[in-house]
Amino acid sequence: MAENKKAIFRIVISGSMEAIFRELTKTDSPQGAIFNSMLTTKGLVPGNRMQMRSVSGGHTIVEGQVMEIDPPRRFAHTHRFTMFDDPVCKVIYDLKQVPGGVEVTLTVEDMPAGTRTEKEMSCGGTTILNELKEVVEKGKPTFGTRVKYCLFHYLEFMLPKKTKSENWPL
């Protein structure tokens, strides 16, 4: 049996810890750094469930549970892609003031080895942090990412039926 894996991604962003933390935890608008998804929850409180949904709300892409929230330093939650039958992993954002900005560390723990989740998380960590930097420093994701988000919106109907939010009540 393969062991679960851990991945660590880092970036320095020129911005305040509060602005970065808000981008990672906001629930009132799409998260430009995290695939333009809507963080949906009944409250960012440890133990509460949370989901990353499409902008329309019609599809739930990620299901999880808040593990820890310590504004503006740490946000940790469990993470499970609803389209895969893989076990959950943990996603942890740590923010630290450093010369030149804020160091953001994204740690993914307990990635189930050899799964689609491992593949997606291994590729997605760098993308998320690079887009987070763009959003905080320039106010919006890169042009290419914005085009990708438009395609996501128009092609949402192609997502697997098992991701429909009606299958993932909060």
Can you describe this structure?
The chain has 170 residues and is an alpha+beta fold. The protein has a 7-stranded antiparallel β-sheet with strand order 1-7-6-5-4-3-2, with helices on one face. A hairpin with a 6-residue loop joins strand 3 and strand 4. The protein is built from 3 helices and 7 strands; from the N terminus they run βαββββββαα. The protein has one domain: START domain (Alpha-D-Glucose-1,6-Bisphosphate, Chain A, domain 4, 2-Layer Sandwich), CATH 3.30.530.20.
Structure in a nutshell:
The chain has 170 residues and is of the alpha+beta class.
Question: What keywords describe this structure?
Answer:
170 residues; 3 helices; single chain; 34% strand; globular; alpha+beta
* Class from secondary-structure proportions: alpha+beta
State the low-pLDDT regions, or none: none
How much is the radius of gyration in Å? Answer: 15 Å
The strands making up the biggest β-sheet line up spatially as: 1-7-6-5-4-3-2
Q: Quote the average pLDDT.
A: 94
CATH class: Alpha Beta
Query: What fraction of the residues are assigned to beta strands by DSSP?
Result: 25-35%
CATH topology: Alpha-D-Glucose-1,6-Bisphosphate, Chain A, domain 4
* Second rung of CATH, namely the architecture: 2-Layer Sandwich
Task: Report the strand count.
Answer: 7
